TrEMBL record:
Keywords assigned by UniProt, alphabetized: Oxidoreductase
Domain Amine oxidase: 13-446
Cofactor(s) of this protein: FAD
Phylogenetic classification of the source organism: Bacteria, Bacillati, Actinomycetota, Actinomycetes, Mycobacteriales
Membership in a protein family: Belongs to the flavin monoamine oxidase family.
Record-given protein name: Monoamine oxidase
């Protein structure tokens, strides 16, 4: 049995950060990770030519200070996302090519409606306290209705509804009817509002680390090499008056406290002894993730740029809900990313790999022309079926959950502490939020020991 000061469960950005900060503070740590790799919902693959593919989380934006601090710590520079060229929106089979952020060639009604809707939501986000959204003046009212109900009430046309739906529900990779309005306001508000979420330049897709997310998590893991145990899914956490015993597949750890840094929906797979308080246990059962497939298609060059496209396109409910230019800092090779979200991702999961590939390439040819027909490679990452993620991109709260169980998101349950991006009051759902949650949990366990001594 390993005997350490603290145990951390899960080596995504939250767990890696918690373990690293504890080690840097002179504490002994064991970091137990279920997969045979670190990174969790980020996963960088480096190709033979040195280019890289981020198969999960990839982009960073302004205000994401804690992931930027890690990048500085490990000497990882960023490069700006390509936004040059026209974007495309496809609605009812019609392609709208546009510069800037507004597809003006669409129905002016729909476009105005979208703009007004986002502005109203931006204001509503400001009325939600980041640390305690359940205390917002209208918390009960907003938690009682789904995002779909709000969109329905605030859309003047089918086009407007589809655009709002994609812009808002897309983040949760679920149908808008599955997500509470209060959750949407909380999550988007934690990053500054919907403008930041859907914004390219200056928003959440502003830049990427050179070398991908792996350029950050690999050196973190290297610093933790003595602490890290891969392929060790944690099965049980028992706590008593003196500490915790954490049992994984082949390793048992005895520690003073444990930080659990895994997605809420799969935190139910661990047996807690004694059982967790009911509200926290119910929170685990009620915070599902959505369905998402991320596909990276490699070409000799980013041919869409020469044709005047930025690579950004959107098509509500299609098998390629979004596309975005995902080239490295050198634009060689050309990398086009497809993100398929929600019900469309679930439908695609039922096809076999060859059928899905044909669908993806067909969508790219339809949008960017015949040069898209012959990629060098296609990398598909279906987060929907990843056992240790339980879906992606992030967990969401259906109606009624935040107001009843949200207060349990952060407080520890005895010696069991909680991290993970969904527990972050700032940049909740982003990699930056994961880092913040890891730093908060590390400070929390150390403060608990200090309090016990004094
Ligand atoms: C397709 C996709 C695109 C995204 N794009 C972006 C983006 O561009 N920018 C951005 O900021 N965010 C993005 N995100 C979200 C971002 O990836 C996550 O917010 C972040 O990685 C979450 O980190 P985490 O440490 O909280 O959780 P995770 O990364 O999920 O880490 C949890 C870890 O716990 C492990 N684990 C699970 N169960 C157990 C167990 N029983 N025992 C031990 N270990 C266990 C898992 O294997 C995993 O390594 C994206 C996510 C996806 C899926």
């Amino acid at each position: 049995m390993a005997d350490v000061d603290y145990c951390v469960v899960g080596a995504g950005f939250a767990g890696l950060t918690a373990a690293l900060r504890l080690k840097q503070a002179g504490r002994s740590v064991a970091l137990l990770e279920a997969r045979d790799r670190v990174g969790g919902r980020t996963f960088t693959v480096t190709r033979d030519d040195g280019s890289w593919i981020d198969r999960g989380g990839a982009w960073v934006g302004p205000g994401q200070d804690r992931i930027h601090a890690l990048m500085d710590e490990f000497g990882v520079p960023e490069y700006k996302q390509n936004h040059d060229g026209d974007a495309m929106m496809i609605v009812d089979g019609k392609k709208h090519r546009y510069g800037g952020t507004i597809p003006w060639s669409m129905s002016p009604w729909a476009v105005t409606n979208l703009g007004v809707g986002l502005t109203v939501l931006e204001e509503m986000c400001k009325a939600v306290p980041r640390e305690s959204p359940w205390e917002a003046k209208k918390a009960d009212e907003w938690d009682r209705i789904s995002l779909a109900e709000w969109i329905e009430k605030n859309s003047l046309s089918k086009q407007a509804r589809e655009m709002l739906d994609m812009a808002l529900a897309g983040t949760y990779t679920s149908a808008a009817s599955e997500t509470s309005l209060l959750w949407m306001l909380t999550q988007m508000g934690s990053g500054g509002g919907p403008g930041f979420v859907i914004g390219g330049k200056g928003g959440a897709q502003d830049a990427r680390p050179v070398g991908g997310m792996g350029a950050i998590y690999r050196p973190m893991a290297a610093e933790l090499v003595d602490a890290l145990h891969l392929s060790q899914p944690v099965q049980q956490i028992s706590q008593d008056a003196d500490g915790v015993t954490v049992s994984a597949a082949d390793v048992t750890v005895r520690a003073r406290r444990v930080i659990v840094a895994i997605p809420l929906a799969i935190a139910t797979s661990i047996v807690y002894e004694p059982a967790l308080p009911v509200d926290r246990a119910f929170l685990h059962q009620r915070m599902p993730s959505g369905a998402v497939i991320k596909v990276s298609v490699i070409y000799d060059e980013p041919f869409w740029r020469a044709d005047g496209f930025s690579g950004q396109s959107s098509s509500p409910n299609s098998p390629a809900t979004l596309t975005i230019d995902a080239c490295t800092d050198t634009a060689d090779p050309g990398i086009m990313c497809i993100i398929t979200e929600g019900p469309a991702a679930r439908r695609l999961t039922k096809l076999d790999e060859a059928e899905r590939k044909a669908v993806f390439i067909g969508e790219l040819v339809d949008r960017f022309g015949s040069k898209a027909k012959t990629p060098l490679e296609l990398h598909e990452q279906n987060w929907t079926v990843e056992r240790y993620s339980g879906g992606g991109m992030i967990g969401h709260a259906p109606t009624g959950v935040l107001t009843q169980f949200g207060y349990t998101l952060r407080p520890p349950c005895g010696r069991v502490h909680w991290a993970g991006t969904e527990s972050s009051a700032v940049m909740c759902g982003w990699i930056d939020g994961a880092v913040r949650s890891g730093e908060r949990a590390a400070s929390e366990v150390m403060a608990a020991e200090t309090a016990a001594v004094s």
